[in-house]
Amino acid sequence: ASAQFQLAVPVAVVFAPGSVPGDLPRPLPFRDVQEMEISVNLRTSITSRYETVYRSTTAQEEAALDVATAREADAALHLLQDASLGTLTVYMVPETSSHLPQGISVYVGKHRSALVRAGGGLAALRTRLQQLMQVMSFTASSIAAALSDRVPDGQLGPDARRHLKSSLGYEITFSLLNPDPKSHAVDWDIEDAVNRYVQPVLDKLSLVANFSVDSQILYYAVLGVTPRFDKESSSFLLSAHSLPHVINPVEARLGSSAASLYPVLNFLLYVPERSHSPLYIQDKDGASVSTNAFHSPRWGGIMVYNVETPASPQTSLPLHVDVDMVRVMEVFLAQLRLLFGLSREELPPEFLLESPGNEGLADWELDRLLWAHTVENIATVSTTLTSLAQLLDKIGNIVIKDDVASEVYRAVTSAQSAMAKLAVGHLHSAFQASKEAVTSSERAFFDPSLLHLLYFPDDQKFAIYIPLFLPMAVPILLSLAKIVREARQRKKEPTKMD
Asked: Which pTM value belongs to this model?
């Protein structure tokens, strides 16, 4: 199915006193529109439209900028900004401004604004804006990853298919694997760790999907791969090529995805048995991984948590172990960002990105996720309805009930509404409409009355019923033929007259 997307990004460029370039095309305020074509395939095209408003600062914004640091300015300006999803505000500060550290020209805050040091003319400003758009908004690679099913394999980057597919919900399972409970009595305060570190991130991501979190402890659950002992370091090693073989044996014990309607994200904390301690993970170059963890795309991650060997060999077993949940959650949250495609790309050295803090992701990162998921949802609806139409064409006698037809109409209307909202830069309403379209299209496609096994082609009917009825029809037809012959003979015989 063909699709033409138009993505509009509202951008405001605000000039503080002393930061206005001398070669602006016309006096402030004025508007400018720039369009860029993103090539996906022959039947899918995307046009990114940046609608930029250039203006001077207001008195309130000047007061907000009259602080010591860029972080304080970002917090103060956030209260004055348009909070709409997908919008960006760029504040130009004088070249001599003390907000930005030495050698830093661009500061990206944790909301939807950035501070840019003035310098050069209009061409330099546009270059900076283009770089900022690549960081704070969608990019050709992020949209291509969202439409990975439509993009030829040769045009995709190595990480394009690593991100989680868009879904209405996700289930997160934290599992503690203790293969040697006789030696280790492991205690982890997972409930407090989830409330303190994970829940703020999920609250931020609640716009994207619904999340459920559970945890479990599995005893005598081994990795299924025998680590190699290294004499030099007196430790056990898991090489990079053996890591894929770790997941399948462990997954059989998890049991979390068997009855789940949504994708399941698995985060495993593995405490190695005493006979294989300490255990370290190696990368492809043979170096030890600093986090001692690895992640599997669209599945989750595993972290190996080594226990210090007691100094005295007479130490009583099992050894009590209190897990450092801060260190563990740092790794798991980093893996969660990777699963959602929120890894931060390489930036120019003059860029400074503010840490998102306890929320786990910045507002503009949430917008990037919503752009990608909205486009992916619309493409999914198009594919689902196209498959349904092909099914109806294939089976001519299929019956479409009124409720199924209404779901199809609702899916088409919602998808068209989502595309219209994207074209005018209303990201939040576009995403909500795309979710409604996905829900309606899946209800229609998976309706029990449309199960293709309920309907048979004509040739299949003949193949089934002829062997059944032919043996019964032969004596009946012979009897009918005999009756007809006898009737004809009676007509030929002359009628006897008394």
From this structure: 0.84
Query: Residue 108: in which H helix or E strand, if any?
Result: strand 106-108
Preceding peptide of 179 cis, ω within 30°? no
Q: How far apart are CA 347 and CA 353, in angstroms?
A: 9
Question: Rounded to whole angstroms, how far apart are CA atoms 210 and 261?
Answer: 12
CA separation for the pair 150, 443 (Å, rounded): 23
Whose tokens are 């690549």? That residue is: 134
Q: What is the DSSP letter of 321?
A: E
Contacts of 81 (CB under 8 A, 6+ apart): 87, 89, 111, 112, 113
N-term to C-term CA, the chain = 86
Which strand ranges, in their side-by-side order, compose the sheet holding 228-230? 228-230, 235-238, 279-281
* Rounded Cα distance, 201 and 184, in Å: 31
Count of residues in the chain: 498
DSSP state letters, 250-305: HHHHH--STT-SS-EEEEEEE---GGG-SEEEB-TTSPBPTTSEEEETTTEEEEE-
Q: What is residue 37's DSSP assignment?
A: E
Provide the Cα torsion 201, 207, 210, 212; round to 10°: 10
d(Cα 243, Cα 228) in Å, to the nearest integer? Answer: 13
Q: pLDDT 10s digit of each residue in the chain, 498 long?
A: 556 788 899 999 999 998 888 888 888 899 989 888 877 766 777 888 899 999 999 999 999 988 888 889 998 988 888 778 889 999 999 988 888 888 888 999 999 999 999 888 888 888 888 888 888 888 877 887 777 776 665 555 556 567 888 899 999 999 999 988 888 888 999 999 999 999 999 999 999 999 999 999 999 888 878 888 888 888 888 888 888 888 888 887 787 655 678 889 999 999 998 888 888 998 888 888 899 999 888 889 999 999 887 656 666 778 888 999 999 999 999 999 989 888 777 788 888 988 888 888 899 999 999 999 999 999 899 989 998 888 888 776 777 888 989 999 999 999 999 999 999 989 999 999 999 999 999 999 888 877 655 556 667 777 777 888 888 888 888 889 889 888 888 887 765 555
